[in-house]
Amino acid sequence: MENVTGGSPLPVCNDSELMLALGSGNGTEPRCAPPADYYFFRDLYVVLPVIYSVICAVGLTGNTAVIYVILKAPKMKTVTNMFILNLAIADDLFTLVLPISIAEHLLRYWPFGEVLCKIILSVDHYNIFSSIYFLTVMSVDRYLVVLATVRSKRMPYRTYRAAKTASLCVWLLVVVIVAPFTVFAGVFVSPDRAARKSCVLSFPSPEGSWFKASRIYTLVLGFAIPVSTICILYTAMLYRLRNMRLNSNAKALDKAKKKVTLMVFVVLAVCLFCWTPFHLSTIVALTTDLSNTPLLIGISYFIASLSYANSCLNPFLYAFLDHSFRKAFRKMLECRPA
């Protein structure tokens, strides 16, 4: 690329100069020529914070409303809603720290220190594991309800208190699973002239093997095991319902139980839709050696945004699929005279 004045060609920007060009936008005379994909990264630099900000605003508002409704409305204190409450807390926790990730993206470096780096990366991984594990517990609960209905039995052990205990166990399990990521999270200082700080997972040598092990760890514990469990439960549930209609004189599930089961199934389907590409990308990363082209980087950011979007979709699903939620939301939004 030649200078606009017709002089000698400008040297191509190195990484640090490119980051400064992306972050400044002050109209100063360029000292180097950007690479061919510079404008792609410039657009990405602007678009991603907008997408993340929308996810943050919608997710924080929706999940906070869900938490408020379940805690304030006496009729909302059910076993299923206890799991939904914890799911909303997990999503709210992630959206609360998302602005820090936006700030890091805009600044192009990490200015917040070691402790906050560990917290942010830990919460990011809580988001990966907590949603799918709470949905697994909800699927187990739905299976037990269907099983008890088919057998015309009561479930005295299925109480709100038992749901609290199960939720606490899920949180403890997620904390244990995420603990290795908390240990390895830290601030990395680049060795170039810019000495740019980044909040990353800093693995010991050999880093490549540790990185692959961490991806396999996340894939197995955050996707393969819980999703397999959920698929087995729903297959068994559908099989029992089919046999009940064909071979039994037992009554069908009542309307309310059907609606709750449908809601859990839809929330699960949306979760899998948002998170499956993320875990499939892990398989691709482990089995292939792809170069970082602009197209690949754009796809990876789209996949990350899709997984983040799951944190703001659930409140809309509750509002559309659960009449009691809609009723409680309306009461919450009513303007009552003093």
From TrEMBL:
PROSITE patterns: G_PROTEIN_RECEP_F1_1 (PS00237), G_PROTEIN_RECEP_F1_2 (PS50262). This is G-protein coupled receptors family 1 profile domain-containing protein. Pfam families: 7tm_1. Its main location: membrane. It is a multi-pass membrane protein. The keyword Magnesium does not apply. One of its GO terms (molecular function) is neuropeptide receptor activity. One of its GO terms (cellular component) is neuron projection. It is found in: Cell membrane. Keywords: Cell membrane, Disulfide bond, G-protein coupled receptor, Glycoprotein, Membrane, Receptor, Transducer, Transmembrane, Transmembrane helix. The lineage of its organism: Eukaryota, Metazoa, Chordata, Craniata, Vertebrata. Residues 62-318 form the G-protein coupled receptors family 1 profile domain. Belongs to the G-protein coupled receptor 1 family. The chain crosses the membrane at residues 44-71, 83-102, 128-147, 168-188, 216-239, 260-278, 298-321.
